[in-house]
Amino acid sequence: MKCRVDERDILVDLKENSKRNLMNPIGSVIENARKERNLTQEELAELSQVNLRTIQRIENNENIPRESTLRLICKVLDIDMTSFDKPNSISETNTQKTYRILNQLFHLFFIVILNLVIVFVFGFLTIDSFANVNSNFGALILSFFIPYFIITKTSEMSGVERLLKYGTGILIYGFIFLSIMIKDNEGKPLILIFASGLYLITLFYGKSLLSKNQK
Q1: Any residues with CB less than 8 A from the CB of 211 and at least 6 apart, and which?
Q2: pTM of the model
Q3: Helices 191-214 & 168-184, crossing angle to 10 degrees?
Q4: How far is residue 168's CA from residue 203's CA, in Å, rounded to a whole number?
Q5: Which residue among 90, 113, 142 closes a domain?
Q6: How many domains does the chain have?
Q7: 61 and 136: one domain?
Q8: Cβ–Cβ contacts within 10 Å for residue 119, how many?
Q9: 3-class SS at 4?
C-alpha cells in the first residue's frame, strides 16, 4: 500500500512539473531537463549532435529551434515533443521575431565589415605602392595571429563554418588577384597569395592547435 502511495505522489509531481514546464519558454524547459540529468551543455551538444552555440542560444531564449534540431535535443533529454505545442512554449512572438531578425542582420553586417577590413589590411601590407619587406613580414604574422584570435572567440564553430564566415573575403580577394597575375603575366609579389593561404589554413585547422595549447 505504501508503494502505491509513493507512486501516486510521483505521478502528481510529474504532472505539476509538466504544467510548470508548459508555462516556461522552450529554453527553460530544455535547460531544466538537461540539469535534471546532470548534463553540461557540451555533453548535450555531443549527444544530440547539435552545435554547442545553438544549444546556448536556445537555453537563453535567443533562438527558436527548428523542428529537426528540437527533435534531436528532445530525444536525448527524453522530452515529449507534443509538450511544445502550447502557445507559450514554442510560438514566436512578434517582438522575438523582430529581435531575431535584427540580430541576424547585425551579425551579417559585422561579418561583411570584418571581411572587408581584413582584405584591406592584407592588400595594404602586400601589394600597395607603400608595401615593403617589413610590411610583407607584418602580413605574414597577421595571417597567423588574426585567424588564431578568431578561433579563440569561435571555438564552438566547425572549421568549415568558420572558413565561410571569416575567410570568404580573403578567398575571393586572393582568387581575383591570382587571376589578374595569370592574365597579365606580371611579376607582382606572391606574398599576398602566401599570406592568404596561411590565413585560410590557420582558420580551418587552427582549432587543433588551440586544443593542444589548452592541454
Answers
A1: none
A2: 0.53
A3: 150
A4: 11
A5: 90
A6: 2
A7: no
A8: 18
A9: helix
